[in-house]
Automatic annotation (TrEMBL):
Its main location: cytoplasm. Belongs to the peptidase S9A family. The keyword Membrane does not apply. The gene is Prepl. Gene3D superfamilies: alpha/beta hydrolase (3.40.50.1820), Prolyl oligopeptidase, N-terminal domain (2.130.10.120). Serine peptidase whose precise substrate specificity remains unclear. Does not cleave peptides after a arginine or lysine residue. Regulates trans-Golgi network morphology and sorting by regulating the membrane binding of the AP-1 complex. May play a role in the regulation of synaptic vesicle exocytosis. GO terms for molecular function: serine-type endopeptidase activity. Keywords: Cytoplasm, Hydrolase, Protease, Serine protease. One of its GO terms (biological process) is proteolysis. This is Prolyl endopeptidase. It comes from Atrichornis clamosus.
Length: 729
C-alpha cells in the first residue's frame, strides 16, 4: 500500500525542503550544506513537476566558470611541457593538501560526532512536517518520494499507489530526479536525471500505460516542456551553455528537429509553458537582457513568434490569460520590474502579427516601489499574485483582474524566505505557499481570493521555535548607504558580547542570501551563537538597482557594506572580533576573501565553500565557456585596463600579504565545474605562506598562527550535494 511504502521511505530519512514553480524571477542559493536527500520533490505547474534548484536561464547563485583543466584545446602543440608541468604542480599541491587534511581532521573527531548526532536529531524532528506534495490531473494524483514516481487515484481512500518510475530499477541509483513533465493527455512522462558529480542531466521519456516503458533517452538536456500530447520541446546543455531548442514527436512520423539557436555567447536559453498552457515560451536571457519567443501549443509545429526584440538592459518574462499577454519587464524608469498587459487580443489577429506590434501595445498594470525586490509571481484565472521583499519584510500583493484592485498583505515578521507551492489548476480560488527563516521550519499558509484573507494552515506536530529573537538593523556604509542586516539570537542569551557570532554574506548576481530553514542554524542558536545575514550591494535584496550598485565597477561597495555591517554588530554588543566568524560560498568568497585582506582584525575565523577567490585570472581566460557572459557581472579586464586595475584592487588572491589572518577553512570539490580546484589550491598555498611569514616575524610579540585548512571532497559538486554527503561535510 501507499501508506506502507511511505513508512518505509520515511525510514530512509527522506526529506522535503524546497518546492516551488521554476520561474525566471525566483532564485535560491543552494549553498547551505545541510540539504535534502536527493530524492527530489515534485514541483508542479499544470502538468509539470520540478525540483527547485536554480531557475534555468536566470542568474545562477553560483560561480559560473568551468574549472576543468584544458576545457578547450586549440591544438596539440599547446599540450607540451607547460601543460605537463602545470599538471604535475596541480597533483603535488593536491597530494600535499590531502596529507595535511589527514593529519588535521582527527583532531575534530569527537566534536564532529556530537554535531552529527545533533543535526540528525533536528533533521528527523522537522523533515516530515511538510510531506510530499501531490499533483492532481483529473482523477490521477502523481507524487515523488525517494527516487520513485507514484500514481494514485484521487478517490482512493486506502492509499494505494503504483510505481511509474524508479531510479534504482532503471540503473540510475547515483542520480536524482530533477524535473518531471507529464503530457496533457497523460500518456507520456518526461523526467530529467542528474548526478551530484555532473552539471548535465539526462531526459528519460516514459510511455505510460499498464506497464510503463522507456520511449526515448535524450542526453545533456537542461529544460523541457510538452507543447502538445505527443510533442516535446527541449534545450540541450554543453560546457555549461544552453543555446539550442529542439522539438521531438512520439506518434505517427517520429522525428526531431532544431527549432531555435542562440548565437550570442552571453545568453542562456530555457523553455516554459504559460500557466494556462496556451503557449510555450522560449526564453533567451543574459545577466541583464532577455528575449522571449512564443510557440502556440494549439499549433506546435509552427515557427516561434518573437514577443519583443532584445534591448540591452531590458529584462522581461511572459505569462498569458484570457487571450492577453501579461509581461513582467524592467522597461522604462525606474529600471525595476513592472507588470504590464497587452491591449490587443491574440485570438483576433495572427500571433506573429500580434507579436511584431511590440511595446507600443504594453499597458502598465502594476509598478514596484523603490528598493523593492520582486521575489516571485503566479498567474491565476482572475488574479495575479506577487511576492515582494521590502526593507527585509515579505509582502503578498494580489492584483485582481475582476475588481481591478490591488491588495498588499505584510507577511509575519519572522519570515525571511518563502516557497510558492504549485497550483496545477490556474482556476483555483486559493494560493498556497510556505514561509520559513534560517531558524524557523516551514509553515504553510493559504490566501483565499474569494475571502481576501490569509490563513495559517495546520501542520502536523511541527515544534514551535519560541526562544529565538529576530532583529533587523541598518548599517551605514562608506558612502552613507544604509545596508540591511538580519540578526538571530537566543532570547535567553546573556552578555551577547561574549557569544560567538557567525556572519553570512554573498553579494553577487542579484541573488538574495539563502535564508530558508536549515538544521545547523537552529543548532547554533540553541548553543548560544548569534547569526547575522548581511544583505550587501551586489545581491538582490532591494531590487535590481541594489545589484547594479554592487557589480562591475561598483564591486568595492559590497566590501564596504560588509565591513560596515560587522563593525555595527560589534558596536551594538553582538559578540566581538575574537569571537566572530564569516561564512560565504561560491561568488560570496570574493567579498569574504577581500575582507580578510583589508580588515583581518574584524574576524577570528572564515569558512568558505567552493569559493571564487581569483577573479582576475579567471576573467582573463576567454577559453572558459562562460567567461563572456560573466563580463556583465565582473567586467572585461582584457579590453579595459581600468577594469583590470579595479578587479586587481579587490581580488582576494591578488592581494594576499604577510599579516595576521583569521583562521580559514575551505571546502572544495574535485568535480566542481565552476570553481577551478587548481586556483583554490594555489590560494591556500599563498595564504598559508603569508600567514606563516607574518607569524615568524612577530612570534616574539605572542601573535598566534592561524589554521589554514582545505577539505577537498571527492564527491559532490558546486555547493550542492546529498543529505548524507552534506551531513558528513
Amino acid at each position: 500500500s501507499c501508506a506502507g511504502l511511505r513508512s518505509l521511505l520515511q525510514g530512509l530519512s527522506f526529506t522535503v525542503k524546497y518546492y516551488s514553480k521554476h520561474n525566471h524571477l525566483q532564485t535560491m542559493c543552494p549553498c547551505s550544506k545541510i540539504k535534502p536527500k536527493k530524492c527530489h520533490i515534485l514541483d508542479c505547474s499544470e502538468s509539470a513537476c520540478t525540483y527547485r534548484t536554480a531557475p534555468p536561464g536566470s542568474i545562477l547563485p553560483c560561480r559560473f566558470f568551468s574549472c576543468k583543466e584544458g576545457t578547450k584545446v586549440t591544438s596539440k602543440r599547446t599540450q607540451n611541457t607547460s601543460t605537463v608541468t602545470s599538471e604535475l604542480l596541480h597533483q603535488n599541491l593536491l597530494k600535499s593538501e590531502q596529507e595535511n587534511w589527514n593529519v588535521i581532521s582527527p583532531i575534530y573527531k569527537s566534536m564532529t560526532k556530537r554535531i552529527k548526532e545533533k543535526l540528525e536529531e533536528l533533521h528527523n524532528m522537522y523533515v516530515f512536517s511538510s510531506g510530499s506534495p501531490r499533483m492532481r490531473l483529473g482523477e490521477n494524483v502523481y507524487f515523488e518520494e525517494n527516487g520513485c514516481i507514484f500514481l494514485s487515484k484521487a478517490d482512493d481512500d486506502e492509499g494505494n499507489a503504483d510505481i511509474l518510475f524508479s531510479t534504482e530499477d532503471l540503473g540510475f541509483s547515483d542520480a536524482f530526479i530533477q524535473r518531471i513533465r507529464i503530457s496533457p493527455d497523460q500518456r507520456y512522462m518526461a523526467i530529467s536525471l542528474k548526478s551530484e558529480n555532473s552539471e548535465e542531466a539526462t531526459c528519460i521519456v516514459m510511455k505510460l500505460g499498464h506497464i510503463p516503458v522507456v520511449e526515448k533517452v535524450i542526453p545533456s538536456v537542461f529544460s523541457f516542456e510538452w507543447a502538445a500530447n505527443d510533442v516535446l520541446y527541449y534545450t540541450t546543455q554543453k560546457n555549461l551553455k544552453c543555446h539550442n531548442v529542439f522539438m521531438t514527436t512520439f506518434t505517427y512520423q517520429k522525428h526531431t528537429k532544431l527549432v531555435y539557436t542562440e548565437e550570442d555567447a552571453r545568453f542562456f536559453v530555457d523553455i516554459y509553458c504559460t500557466k494556462d498552457r496556451r503557449f510555450l515560451t522560449i526564453n533567451s536571457n543574459s545577466k541583464t537582457t532577455s528575449e522571449v519567443w512564443l510557440v502556440d501549443c494549439r499549433c506546435p509545429f509552427e515557427s516561434p513568434a518573437l514577443v519583443q526584440a532584445r534591448t540591452r538592459g531590458v529584462i522581461y518574462h511572459v505569462e498569458h490569460r484570457n487571450d492577453q499577454l501579461y509581461i513582467l519587464t524592467t522597461h522604462g524608469e525606474p529600471a525595476e520590474y513592472k507588470a504590464i498587459s497587452t491591449d490587443n487580443y491574440i485570438h483576433r489577429i495572427n500571433l506573429d502579427t500580434y507579436c511584431r506590434s511590440g511595446r507600443e501595445n504594453w499597458q502598465l498594470v502594476y509598478a514596484l516601489e523603490k528598493k523593492t525586490k520582486l521575489v516571485d509571481f503566479e498567474m491565476f484565472s482572475d488574479d495575479c499574485v506577487l511576492f515582494l521583499k521590502n526593507a527585509g519584510h515579505l509582502y503578498l500583493t494580489v492584483i485582481s483582474f475582476f475588481s481591478h484592485s490591488v491588495q498588499s498583505i505584510k507577511l509575519p515578521t519572522w519570515a525571511c524566505e518563502f516557497e510558492l507551492e504549485s497550483h496545477p489548476e490556474h482556476t483555483t480560488s486559493t494560493c498556497y505557499f510556505q514561509l520559513s527563516s534560517p531558524v524557523h521550519p516551514p509553515k504553510r499558509f493559504a490566501y483565499s481570493f474569494k475571502e481576501n484573507n490569509l490563513i495559517e494552515q495546520a501542520v502536523q506536530e511541527v515544534p514551535i521555535i519560541t526562544n529565538c529573537h529576530t532583529t533587523r538593523l541598518l548599517a551605514k556604509s562608506k558612502d552613507e548607504t544604509l545596508v540591511p542586516l538580519t540578526v538571530f539570537h537566543n532570547t535567553n542569551s546573556k552578555e551577547l558580547h561574549r557569544k560567538p557570532l557567525l556572519v553570512h554574506v554573498y553579494g553577487a548576481y542579484g541573488i538574495d542570501l539563502n535564508m530558508s530553514f536549515k538544521e545547523e542554524k537552529l543548532m547554533l542558536i540553541e548553543e548560544g551563537w548569534i547569526l547575522a545575514y548581511c544583505h550587501v550591494r551586489g545581491g538582490g535584496e532591494q531590487g535590481l538597482s541594489w545589484h547594479r550598485d554592487g557589480c562591475q565597477h561598483n564591486k568595492l561597495k559590497g566590501l564596504h557594506d560588509l565591513r560596515a555591517c560587522i563593525t555595527l554588530l560589534h558596536q551594538l554588543g553582538f559578540s566581538q572580533p575574537k569571537h566572530t566568524a564569516l561564512a560565504a560560498a561560491s561568488a560570496g568568497g570574493v567579498l569574504a576573501g577581500a575582507l580578510c585582506n583589508t580588515d583581518p582584525q574584524l574576524l577570528r575565523a572564515v569558512v568558505l565553500q567552493a569559493p571564487f577567490i581569483d577573479v582576475l585570472n579567471t576573467m582573463m581566460k576567454t577559453h572558459l565557456p562562460l567567461t563572456i557572459e560573466e563580463q556583465e557581472e565582473w567586467g572585461n579586464p582584457l579590453e579595459d585596463e581600468k577594469c583590470m586595475k579595479y578587479i586587481k584592487s579587490y581580488c582576494p588572491y591578488q592581494n594576499i600579504k604577510p599579516q595576521c589572518y583569521p583562521s580559514v577553512f575551505i571546502t572544495a570539490y574535485e568535480n566542481d565545474q565552476r570553481i577551478p580546484l587548481t586556483g583554490v589550491l594555489q590560494y591556500v598555498q599563498k595564504l598559508r605562506k603569508a600567514a606563516l611569514d607574518h607569524a615568524s616575524r612577530t612570534r616574539e610579540k605572542g601573535n598566534w598562527t592561524p589554521n589554514i585548512i582545505l577539505d577537498i571532497q571527492a564527491n559532490g559538486s558546486h555547493c550542492d550535494s546529498s543529505w548524507e554527503h552534506s551531513l558528513n561535510e
